[in-house]
Amino acid sequence: FELDLARQLNLNQARVFITHDAYSPDPRTFLDRLRHLAGACEERDIGLMVTIMYPRDMVADRSRWPEVRGFASDLVQTLSDHPALAFWDVSNEPDWGGGRLSPEQVQMRMDHARYMADLFHELDTATPVTIGATFVPGMEAMADAMDVLSFHDYSPTRAEIRANIARAKE
Asked: Residue 87 forms beta bridges with which residues?
């Protein structure tokens, strides 16, 4: 229903958040549903950006990062050759601390995002990888790890948004 509404609005991309926690209890069902979503997008000529979320405690512990390899591999095996897949967004806003994370914790999140970008580049050499940064400086700091630069602007005025877009384009 929502994808039909999207087409009526002439939208051409869908960004879906998926979590390791949703995958873990029943990977087969999870991957079947993801494949179904990709097919529904394809039927409507809507590209699919898969945004991947990880348990916070896993991101905060560098020794646990390899645990997600099976998850990433399953995602790639399920979708990498699907016509609807447009991008892997391997981390959402790792540069955002929200005033509750220390600079070291934010850096760990950014390091994890780079790790995931490297992993997806290894597993899928064809599909572009992005990291959805919160701010232009975060995007710049991680630019060499991604194929498509992206950031999410929450600025309060159009003028600030325009200035951030101009900086990002530079």
From this structure: 49
